[in-house]
């Protein structure tokens, strides 16, 4: 637990397939009272050594589910839906964010608290139902970057994850940009994605990579799906069946699952399409998929045809596949760490004087005979 972050609730009614919070914390939100939260803020202010006045988070499993829930207790008691917000927001769900807005305002007024940040994930399909909440969040509670989790761009995987489509993301992004501009702040959205989630095919990951490239995103941290206890996605992974639809003895909805080292690595590599270390794998996959036109230097291409040109001399040396001197150009000669070849000494070692593979094998065989 981060010492300057405050938990305001437990539970989540999102029901995302890859997450087990709904199972172990419950679908009905358990809220703390506003007074209790404000008391904790004062306690942090008074007791945390070195407290600078910044609260790093006021949240929970989802930042914006505080005091939200089903408006009909009878329906809630009998409801079997795994999510209140997927495939669409249930008409019985109360989406009024007034309690969260009120809490944020009161938290900002606590003496000695200079800044309250929201670091928990914002459920953006829910947030766009309350523009006033988005405005409050963007104007006062974003520390430059706001992390949100579309998780994918393609409908197939998104439906199996029980996540909203990219339409909701685009709407939230437009609101975020508008309110940031109105507040005179330069702030950015950081979208999170998952690779290799059950239901994700190579083509889906490729489309996601092309979307990332088109939108100038280069993900540093990415999640490659791993089956974990109590998740629907884990059942999908092992049974290769969609448990969100009715499963009969001889009739089931088959789910494609990325398994095996190569395919899982490829899906992750596509999320990090900008990393030169991933280019050989992606290049081969694009050839296999009949998408050679995406290899090259054109604006529509995903990766370059030749990774040598895109690496710095330091990266080429580190790769260990060849010496930098061998591929020296005018440009590399001007690099600070470049050592020119000296005639008669290191030049032959780098090129012609290197024994061929068969010569080397012969030498090795002779050596092993001498030893025996
Ligand atoms: S009726 Fe709707 S809002 Fe109520 S619990 Fe079920 S899905 Fe959620």
From TrEMBL:
Region (Disordered): 300-372
Radical SAM core domain sequence ranges: 1-264
Keyword Thylakoid: no
Keyword Iron-sulfur: yes
Keyword terms: 4Fe-4S, Iron, Iron-sulfur, Metal-binding, S-adenosyl-L-methionine
Cofactor requirement: [4Fe-4S] cluster
One MF annotation (Gene Ontology) recorded for this entry: catalytic activity
Biased composition (Basic residues): 315-333
Biased amino acid composition, Polar residues: 346-372
Protein name: Radical SAM core domain-containing protein
Native source species: Vibrio ruber (strain DSM 16370 / JCM 11486 / BCRC 17186 / CECT 7878 / LMG 23124 / VR1)
């Amino acid at each position: 637990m981060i010492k300057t972050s405050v938990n305001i609730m437990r539970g989540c009614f999102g029901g995302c397939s890859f997450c087990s919070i709904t199972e172990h914390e419950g679908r009905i939100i358990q809220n703390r009272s506003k007074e209790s939260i404000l008391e904790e803020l004062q306690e942090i202010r008074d007791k945390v050594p070195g407290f600078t006045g910044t609260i790093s988070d006021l949240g929970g499993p989802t930042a914006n589910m505080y005091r939200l829930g089903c408006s009909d207790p009878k329906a809630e008691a009998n409801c079997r839906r795994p999510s209140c917000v997927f495939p669409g927001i249930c008409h019985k769900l109360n989406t009024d964010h007034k309690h969260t807005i009120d809490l944020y305002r009161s938290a900002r007024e606590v003496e000695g608290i200079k800044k309250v940040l929201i670091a928990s994930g914002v459920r953006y399909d829910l947030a766009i139902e309350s523009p006033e909440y988005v405005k409050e969040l963007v104007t006062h509670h974003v520390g430059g970057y706001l992390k949100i989790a579309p998780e994918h761009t393609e409908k197939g995987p998104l439906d199996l994850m029980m996540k909203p489509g990219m339409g909701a993301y685009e709407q939230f992004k437009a609101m975020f940009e508008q309110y940031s501009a109105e507040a005179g702040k330069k702030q950015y959205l950081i979208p999170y994605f998952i690779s290799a989630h059950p239901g994700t095919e190579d083509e889906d990951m490729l489309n996601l990579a092309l979307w990332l490239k088109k939108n100038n995103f280069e993900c540093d941290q990415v999640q490659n799906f791993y089956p974990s206890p109590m998740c629907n996605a884990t059942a999908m992974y092992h049974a290769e069946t969609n448990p969100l639809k009715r499963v009969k003895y001889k009739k089931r909805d088959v789910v494609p699952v990325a398994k095996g080292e190569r395919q899982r690595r490829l899906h992750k590599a596509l999320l990090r399409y900008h990393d030169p270390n991933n280019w050989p794998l992606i290049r081969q996959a694009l050839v296999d998929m009949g998408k050679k036109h995406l290899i090259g230097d054109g604006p529509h291409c995903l990766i370059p045809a030749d990774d040598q040109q895109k690496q710095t001399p330091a990266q080429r040396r580190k790769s260990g596949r060849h010496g930098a001197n061998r591929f020296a150009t005018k440009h590399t000669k001007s690099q600070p760490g470049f050592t020119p070849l000296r005639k008669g000494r290191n030049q032959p070692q780098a090129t012609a004087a290197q024994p061929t593979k068969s010569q080397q094998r012969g030498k090795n065989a002779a050596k092993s005979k001498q030893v025996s």
